[in-house]
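Chapter summary example.
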Amino acid sequence: MTAGAAAAAANKAQGARQGTMATDLAARAMGIHWPTGFEPERADLFAHNETVVEASCETVWQYIVDARAWPQWYPNARGVRLLGGAGALAPDVRWRWTTFDLAIESRVHEFVPNRRLGWFGGAPGEAPAFYHSWLLAPEGDGCRVTMDEAGVGSGAAAFRRADEARMHRGHALWLATLRWVSEGR
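The structure predicted for these 185 residues follows.
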């Protein structure tokens, strides 16, 4: 391969990665309540994923709020430890965990049972750099599950530069495994 062909291939790959965030922004869920400073159009990193699960939103919700059990079915969650004696996610619950090989401390911000869950996340002891949101809506006999996440600041920008599609792929895996456990397969 010539240097010119290698450069063209690298540019094509870079363009494909850059397109992920633009595509996700265009498809984002308009019903998400974004906290000030985490609006998707201002984010340094953004991912949108959604699926329909053949189970009730109540069933799906139980798997989402049982954060301690995530590592049993979602391979990108490790060492989940709820703080303050919490048994599950609920308003203002904080937890520490590892995801995308990053040590994260998260705190629930929005909590509407069986419909909405949003949390801030970032390195322990630092200001939040990410806002992760779940939106559940009944659809037929199932549940449409939407997951959007916005990242701001230099860490989010570096994550995007390294592999813009990584968060999207990780969330696609999360939704696939959530669908699998919720549907009882």
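To summarize the output: Confidence is low (pLDDT under 50) at residues 1-18.
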